[in-house]
Protein: Undecaprenol kinase/diacylglycerol kinase (ATP)
Amino acid sequence: MNASNNYWRRRYQSFRYAFRGIAAFIRSEPHARIHALATIVVVVAGFYVHLPAVQWTLLLLVIGLVWVSEMINTVIEKIMDHLAPEWHERVGWIKDVAAGAVLVSAIIAVVAGALIFLPFLHR
Ligand SMILES: Nc1ncnc2c1ncn2[C@@H]1O[C@H](COP(=O)(O)OP(=O)(O)OP(=O)(O)O)[C@@H](O)[C@H]1O
Structure:
């Protein structure tokens, strides 16, 4: 009984740390606030045009893709700044590729968003 209580307590703590991480990301990163604004605009537009469930699912997947890639990119930048604050070609490569991952996800999100919303503009 006690072991089971400890298990759920640890799971609860893990969720708290994860939510704290999301809040820290939004508080400290200007990019995160731009993503938050874009997410709100797109979700409101989705409700406005009454997106069907499949389009909602695809939209949420690309929104998630951008958030996750931006969060991982930010973590990589912070790790590199902490471990290797000096200028180094390899650090530049790592940061460039991590930023490239965000750009890939953003391009996919813009194209997917256009494909999802354009048919509703023609109605
Ligand atoms: N220590 C370093 N060594 C070599 N190049 C670096 C280093 N730090 C940054 N750079 C170069 O500068 C670019 C921007 O790095 P920086 O850490 O300033 O990211 P940022 O501009 O804060 O990115 P973001 O806009 O995603 O927050 C990197 O992609 C890399 O090309």
Remarks:
- The chain has a mean pLDDT of 96.
- Helices lie at 2-28, 30-48, 53-83, 89-121.
- Residues 30-121 form a domain with the Helix Hairpins fold (CATH 1.10.287.3610).
- The chain has four helices and no strands.
